[in-house]
Amino acid sequence: MKPKIWLSSPHMSGEEQTYIKEAFETNWVAPLGPNVSGFESDLQHYLKQNKYVAALASGTSALHLSLILLGVTSGDEVICQSKTFSATANPIVYQGATPVFVDSEEDTWNMCPVQLEMALQDRLAKGKSVKAIIPVHLYGMPYKADEIHSIAKKYHIPVVEDSAESLGSHYKGQNCGTFGDYAILSFNGNKIITTSGGGAIVTNTESEKQKAVFLATQARDSAPHYQHSQIGYNYRMSNIVAGIGRGQMTILDSHVAKRRANHDQYKIGLQHIDNIAFLDEPKDHFSNRWLTTILVDSKETREGLRLALEAENIESRPLWKPMHQQPIFRKSPHYLNGVSDDLFDRGLCLPSGSNLTNKQLDRVISAINMYFAVC
Ligand SMILES: *Cc1c(COP(=O)(O)O)cnc(C)c1O
Asked: Which is nearest to 57 in space by CA: 219, 192, 203, 235?
């Protein structure tokens, strides 16, 4: 069996252990400490736009806290991009609210502005309380930020920007993770940088950040004893984990460059196959190319290709199954135009890690060429 090629595996810089060692030596082995504040300040510096960042246990916990801070509660509705990973939608349900799924457009595969406005008008006409909108920059491709945010503004509904897959991407020169009323980042094992597991919430004000940290550390009132007047959570990032994050920040830009180079290499290596289409960057959109994705002519071809790669010990994955198709969300309201269903049928994510060698990329490209040569 040839050695495994993964879809997106962790890629360390070598600096991580310096920060972790320092945490041990100074005994900051806790969900606070100099690595946590150092990592937050690195992220703030990177994102710009005078944002505040609180490091948390996961991207999912950051989404959950964003919804809590926006007052989303039982009986409310939250509009969510259907084409996403389930972690975008789950926290809506944690709050007892109902997710309303909106389909994608073809230029970025993200939330369709036309469908969004239709959905909003319909929910509001039905007397529903829509408390937030969650668009996603999927696979690192920025969503149509001007359109989405101007609709949100028109209806006075806050946006939680799911930037879990798009650290290092930008739109009109502004970094993804800085567009929303709140934004979230993820540092899970497969993301563009990883802390093994972790996430962050990005806020516009220091006081919003402090509220997020308060809720993330069990909502302890200031008193010598443990006192609570609100329900709290254990969502803070540990100082050890944040040390990994500080090390990873030193190579973020080079990881983006490498993932973009992977995408270009696939494009060149597969350009003569008529059956393969890539997602190009629309004007003003800069993608970190977290994952390189392709579209083929049919579900059968996509599955055939996936299995052919698997036989070569190469991991690939169908594009994310839209939430409106998930058994758990079948009863949720949805506004569809067929785009995300079609992408799920015909799309495949290719190995895209920043640690892939040329030899590994060539192996994937040859395996794909071979599949289309015989079929
Ligand atoms: C990974 C991911 C999340 C969740 O982040 P975790 O850190 O794994 O909790 C949320 N949304 C999207 C789009 C993701 O890819």
From this structure: 235
